[in-house]
């Protein structure tokens, strides 16, 4: 790998996107959207993405850290830039009414059939990354170096980035000199937004197993009821953010799943809770995690639980603050590409990502990609942009429907111009 040297200034405006490149990216997007797959099971998506990367001129390797894909577009001696997109979708029933809406289903971890939808825009990220590779392949005379395009599995479970690193992603393909990613967001399509503070929050996901003593519903005094214990834990956990964390700290705690029992007449043996903690600082994240452990143990002791609770950390990802120098260069490149009025500021939010694990020790940049179509924006209730943003279906909503006609070309241009900040010779 060649050292990057000073990041170059992108030339603007870049060559127009080829209509064929955009048409192929559009049909890839609609195909991926219609055939979403859950985290860790992205077999078809990975195959489709790999084929599209080959068509875009890349040498492709599959099966990295699960269904991970890497495409390599080599173009002489120079820096290496990696574009990252995610392969997975969510257990959400699509209600967009789009002609290419998903009707897919899959079995969840417990063998139940669930609907599946690309409700986070990862299909858009994949199609934009392929489009950027195809575009950069067509304008090879404008840059030198290596473009790597990464399809990451299992982002929604925050486990895929760790799996890629574990499987030797950077040993096999080298550490890039610049790592870039973008994420669909409920901003007007055709816009991008950069942050000045943290772009994504730190996140810890815990699986909590509470043990009771099962028995007959008629004799609760002879049992330790894990359903009542779980309910107590849920309520007590809510006091952490409300009553124990400083009000200026941005923290959330959500119990997103609670499972116990199979029959109304039987007090079960066990209850499990899925807990997500998010914070903008690692210190707050770990502090709240410690308070969760203490609260759960205290509730179990008070209930007379016969076994210590088990708290398993399912995933942990730190908050992401991009490299300020890289962020400034990317923002400038995007302002030249789109015009300053289409490059917004993004406020810190508690959305979480496992991108920071991939970006650890590597210069990196991350921005938000607007997906709301003009008609949808006009129809959204509210007089101000903030009111409209609050009313629009956000990521993970069954009605999340990116307006690909504008968002996809913007996503391609944002990635390509971002990559050229490092790849284009001075
Ligand atoms: Zn998501
Ligand atoms: Zn996402």
Automatic annotation (TrEMBL):
Class of this enzyme: hydrolase
Name of a matching Pfam family: Peptidase_M20
Keyword Membrane: no
Entry-linked InterPro entries: Amidohydrolase, Bact_exopeptidase_dim_dom, Peptidase_M20, Peptidase_M20_dimer
Gene3D superfamilies: 3.30.70.360, Zn peptidases
Enzyme Commission code(s) on record: 3.5.1.32
Entry superkingdom: Bacteria
Ranges where the Peptidase M20 dimerisation domain occurs: 202-295
GO molecular function: hippurate hydrolase activity
SUPFAM superfamilies: Bacterial exopeptidase dimerisation domain, Zn-dependent exopeptidases
Keywords: Hydrolase
NCBIfam families per record: amidohydrolases (TIGR01891)
Protein name: Hippurate hydrolase
Organism: Micromonospora echinospora
Highest classification ranks of the organism: Bacteria, Bacillati, Actinomycetota, Actinomycetes, Micromonosporales
């Amino acid at each position: 790998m060649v050292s990057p040297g000073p990041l170059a200034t992108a030339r603007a405006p870049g060559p127009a996107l080829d209509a064929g490149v955009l048409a192929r990216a559009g049909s890839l997007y609609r195909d991926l959207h219609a055939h979403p797959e859950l985290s860790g099971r992205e077999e078809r998506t990975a195959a489709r993405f790999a084929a599209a990367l080959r068509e875009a001129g890349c040498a492709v390797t599959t099966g990295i850290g699960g269904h991970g894909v890497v495409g390599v577009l080599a173009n002489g001696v120079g820096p290496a830039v990696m574009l990252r997109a995610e392969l997975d979708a969510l257990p959400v029933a699509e209600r967009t009414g789009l002609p290419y809406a998903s009707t897919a289903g899959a079995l969840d971890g417990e063998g139940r059939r669930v609907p599946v939808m690309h409700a986070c825009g990862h299909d858009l990220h994949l199609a934009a990354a392929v489009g950027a590779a195809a575009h950069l392949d067509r304008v090879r005379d404008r840059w030198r170096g290596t473009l790597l395009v990464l399809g990451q599995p299992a982002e929604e479970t925050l486990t895929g980035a760790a799996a890629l690193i574990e499987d030797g992603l950077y040993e096999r393909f080298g550490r890039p000199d610049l790592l870039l990613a973008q994420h669909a967001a409920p901003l007007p399509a055709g816009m991008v937004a950069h942050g000045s503070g943290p772009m994504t929050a730190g996140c810890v996901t815990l699986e909590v197993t509470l043990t009771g003593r099962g028995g007959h519903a008629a004799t609760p005094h002879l049992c330790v009821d894990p359903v009542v214990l779980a309910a107590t834990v849920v309520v007590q956990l809510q006091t952490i953010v409300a009553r124990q964390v400083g009000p200026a700290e941005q923290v959330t705690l959500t119990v997103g799943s609670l499972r116990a029992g199979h029959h109304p007449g039987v007090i079960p043996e066990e209850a499990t809770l899925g807990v997500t903690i998010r914070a903008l600082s690692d210190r707050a994240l770990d502090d709240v995690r410690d308070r969760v452990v203490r609260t759960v143990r205290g509730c179990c002791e008070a209930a007379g639980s016969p076994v210590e609770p088990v708290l398993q950390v399912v995933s942990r990802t730190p908050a992401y603050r991009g490299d300020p120098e890289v962020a400034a260069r990317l923002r400038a490149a995007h302002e030249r590409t789109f015009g300053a009025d289409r490059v917004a500021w993004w406020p810190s939010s508690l959305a979480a990502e496992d991108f920071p694990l991939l970006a650890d020790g590597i210069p990196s940049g991350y921005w938000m990609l607007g997906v709301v179509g003009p008609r949808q924006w006009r129809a959204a209730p509210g007089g101000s942009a903030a009111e409209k943003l609050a009313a629009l279906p956000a990521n993970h909503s069954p009605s999340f429907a990116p307006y690909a006609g504008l968002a996809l070309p913007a996503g391609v241009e944002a990635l390509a111009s971002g990559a050229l900040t490092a790849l284009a010779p001075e």
